[in-house]
Amino acid sequence: MVTTGLAPNTADDPLAHGQVALVDLLDRVLSTGVVVSGDITLAIADVDLVRISLRALVASVGALAPPVPDAAAGVPA
């Protein structure tokens, strides 16, 4: 039996094998956006008392807003 590990393809992800500066990571996250979600359950003796679902969207306003037509470029509004 032959077992092979899955290695990241550098053609798909150029940041897979190199160090990334925090500024570059933040720029990439804000330009595309990221969704963070999670669930928290408080239980005692296998009885669920409180369940909290968390969802957060982190993105820049420019990534979420539709593009504004440019009057100087001759694009009608």
TrEMBL record:
Extract the InterPro entries matched here.
Gas-vesicle_GvpA-like (IPR000638), GvpA (IPR050530)
Q: Quick one: where is this thing mainly located?
A: other
- Annotated GO CC locations: gas vesicle; vesicle membrane
- An example Gene Ontology molecular-function term: structural molecule activity
Keyword entries, A-Z: Gas vesicle
One matching Pfam family is Gas_vesicle
The lineage's top-level taxon is Bacteria
Localization per Swiss-Prot or TrEMBL: Gas vesicle
Family named by the database record = Belongs to the gas vesicle GvpA family.
* Name of the protein: Gas vesicle protein
Originating species: Micromonospora krabiensis
